[in-house]
Amino acid sequence: MPRDQAADAQHLYDDRASKYDDSWHPRFARHVVDLLDLKPGEHVLDLACGTGLVTFAAAQAVGSTGSVTGVDISSGMLAQAHLKQLHANIENVTFHQHSITSLSNLDGVQGQQFDTITCASALVLLSNPTLALKHWVRFLKPGGRLIMDVTHIRSQLGHLTLERVGKSLAIPVPSYRLNFESPKEFEDLLSAAGLQNLDIRLVSQAQASGHGQGIDAYVCDVNQPRIDRVYVVEDGQAIFERLIVSRYGEALAADGGRDRARELFLEEWAKLANDKGEIEEVDGVFVGVGWKPD
């Protein structure tokens, strides 16, 4: 049975809302805005805006003559965003609680087109990213640009392995990283939506160059990504036990399915090992910018 993507996202991020900013995401949000080179007076649509990390950075860049519209399904994440807005008295930002996959029935964006659309750290939560992206591009001005990202297929290996288990059992978990086995599939997604002049970079969470604070210090060679952590096959048991009690694993654990899920998880986890028995986890996300033709 297909999952309810909006409900999944709301549950996942309501749980994380109070601690979401205690992570690499604030720095990554600044890089997202830097890549867009926003101009004063521009209008931005920030999808899956969460606690407003990209939203408020973009609002500062576009100034009082511009605006940012944030959309997110999670009431918990938006509560954090509203608190920030109130504290800083930011007037050029509007938030809406709504699914980002059905903007056509959101009054706050009807009849509008934006200079820029952003979607940070959320595309892999969508079961049909191709359909979603084509829908979003309708709200982009000719000549406007869109930015989004997907995790490297060797990143967050526990979640990836759990997703493979769900696929085997026809019990999907609330993430869809398998849509992007390579950066080519990400590029194809952007192209299929009609975007051009694509710029795709592999960006690390930790500094790749060892110096500087700008995005260039975090960009990695696609063919030589930064290895964040090295596991062994025996680590799979503990990783499974941690994930199976999370929101990602609850469907697999239901109705007595935990033992079978564990068996498949350990099989898939072992397949990730190299000839030394090591399992290398990559630190990185692919960030893509594409332009709508004039």
UniProtKB/TrEMBL annotation:
Span of domain Methyltransferase: 39-152
InterPro entries, per database record: Methyltranfer_dom (IPR025714), SAM-dependent_MTases_sf (IPR029063), UbiE/COQ5_MeTrFase (IPR004033)
Domain of life: Eukaryota
Protein name: Methyltransferase domain-containing protein
Gene Ontology MF annotations: methyltransferase activity
